[in-house]
Write a structure and sequence with these properties.
4-stranded mixed beta sheet; about 220 residues; 7 helices; globular; Nucleotidyltransferase, domain 5; alpha/beta
């Protein structure tokens, strides 16, 4: 293990996540699962201001300055919430010179969905979709790269970033997106720690909210 990797593993991780009706923060120290601290809250009428206030209550200014890994979910989810948490993550990353990584909400839930539906025993790839209110679907494609009998050790790669489709390509191996605040926050912490973050402090510039349709759909 390189000195650089050792140094990164010895610092805390902060993740920010949102769904269709909630948002949350996750904190893990030194890649130790027992240190996990989670915060989950349903949307209110003043998400913009309360998001900052809740973050200040969740993590102290001193601990925030020590963050060495920062990850955020970029959607698809509630458009306004995705936009706000991405702006918050970009701001923190810029202010504390911490690399920022991003994951789609479908990628975060992919292992949970694959495990629940025993995908790892009968198929190497599958789709996750969200039906639109009017017509069509938002769907992303996921591939099992490391097939283990123990579903906890699954490694899944996002091969098609969630985007709009008029019809699902493979309905047999397509599963509806289901959010789980607690489990998805934990998975985002896992993904953040497993993925080596580039030390480039300008990485926040590339992180944008993912929403393939207009907010009024």
């Amino acid at each position: 293990m390189t000195n650089k990797l050792k140094q990164i593993e010895n610092y805390p991780t902060l993740v920010i996540h949102s769904t269709d009706n909630s948002f949350g923060f996750g904190y893990r120290k030194n890649n130790n699962l027992e240190s996990d601290k989670l915060f989950i809250k349903k949307f209110d009428n003043d998400l913009c201001n309360n998001l900052i206030n809740d973050l200040n209550k969740f993590i102290s200014k001193e601990n925030l300055q020590k963050i060495n890994k920062l990850s955020v979910s970029i959607g698809p989810a509630n458009f306004n919430a995705s936009r706000l948490i991405v702006v918050l993550a970009r701001t923190i990353s810029q202010q504390i010179n911490c690399p920022l990584d991003r994951f789609s909400t479908f990628e975060i839930m992919a292992k949970r969905i694959a495990s629940k539906n025993n995908i790892f025993t009968n198929k190497k790839s599958f789709w996750i979709y969200k039906k639109l209110k009017r017509k069509g679907f938002i769907a992303g494609k996921y591939e099992i790269c490391h097939n283990e009998k123990n579903s906890a050790n699954l490694i899944i790669r996002e091969t098609v970033l969630p985007k709009v489709f008029q019809e699902l390509e493979n309905q047999e191996f397509s599963f509806e997106a289901t959010y789980d605040d607690k489990e998805d926050l934990k998975e985002l912490l896992d993904l953040s720690n497993k993925k080596f973050l580039n030390s480039n402090i300008d990485s926040w510039r590339k992180v944008l909210p993912l929403y393939p349709i207009s907010p009024i759909n």
